[in-house]
Amino acid sequence: MNDTFVQIGVFVFATALTGWLTWLICRTPPKRSGDGAKDYFLAGGGLSWIYIAGSITLTNLSTDQLVGMNGNQMLLLAWWELSAVAGLFILAYVFLPLYYKYKCTTTTELLQHKLGGTGLRMLIAILFLLGGLFIYLPIMLYTGALLLKTMFSVSLPLIAIAAGLAVVGAAYAVFGGLRAVAVSDTISGVGVLGLSLLIVFLALQAINFDLSGIPPERLNMIGADGSPIPWHTLFTGMIFIQIFYWSFNQTITQRAMAAPSLAEARRGVLAAAAIRLMIVPLIVVVPGVVAYQMFGDVNDSAYGMIVAEVLPPWLSGLFAAMMAAAVLTSFNSALNSGAALYVCDVHPRLFGTRHDVARLATIITMTFTALAVFLVPIYAQAESIINLVQQLNGLLSMPILSAFFVAIFFRNVSPVAVAISVIAGTLGYGVASTFFTEVHYIHQMAVTLFACMGLSLLLNAVVFRRRATLSFEDFRGETA
Q: Within 27-136, where are the H helices?
């Protein structure tokens, strides 16, 4: 009982300290740009590279990675993080210059600049919002609640713990905007990465650095056909998954668009890539593999069990606080980006009226928070949360990516043709993933991408009588 009190005491203190430090740094209002949406959602264009790197890292690195990837209990899952490095480089040198060239607040704004009209922009924004609401937000809350419940061995129901995390996360998004989110991300990131590396060391120490008792297939980095990542998927859909996530996902790119210049933004993205290469692969797979040797096949409970086993009570309380911070930062980042998409892309199209950005963002944030908590129990039934996330991503990611590729690399394309292909691709992937399960979903995602692009161009030519042409004019120079 005393150990539990120590854990909870350290947890409360560390959580409060993170909040206080965030307030201390953010208490001086930033310079206003005169654009309410940019001030609230892009921190007035004032984020330095340090906060961009910190926020990108911790927005992505949350309990869905630490719990989900370690829950597979095999080294193979490290490919998600290793290939992410390529995705970040592509963002830094290929697509980030476009966002700065067109002065975008949301990724979907780029579609309007390239293809004209606002209908396609709103459609893609709505699909992003649906993905965030039904996939990302509830999964973040579920995995965070599961980790805290496992570590503290509390009898509270998962949904109660998830609700507590949701309320605190929403408070950051509502009261501080992107600036507070990015600062809290960075502060928490130092603790999360440091303690996660310590857990890797202590876990290996607990088995005397001897992996000989672990089945070879759990240590193999070349995935067999029946594994979560067969080796051949690395050459088909994997790179496109990374391009979508790092270059067009509002939750990630919003941080990179909030710098005072392209050069500063690029420094932040490259720093995030370095962290992902050197640190993240270790912390998302090694503890799970060690847990297999110590506890057997325990799926998504592996990370919480290994942490509870190797950390002393006071340090596990600190780690729990950092994990809660990781959940909060990922959750409030997703809330903030969701609010940006609605306020900038959806609301003006539907209502066409002037609005108070902060007030409208608050209403949307609170609505999404309540719905995400309500959906948490659904994900408690999943055998592997990370594999489920990646499969669900395919419903939206490749059709949406096809819209961006067509918009960026082709001229004289009807946005209606693109919109039809996006909807068809979403439905087609859903059918294919249900009835053609013998084909790995990563391969299906690659097929979906090219099928959507082909359908866009076919409709453009046959139905809309427009001749599309390849164009690379956006990449002949960049704006720093």
A: 36-41, 49-60, 63-72, 78-90, 96-101, 109-115, 119-131
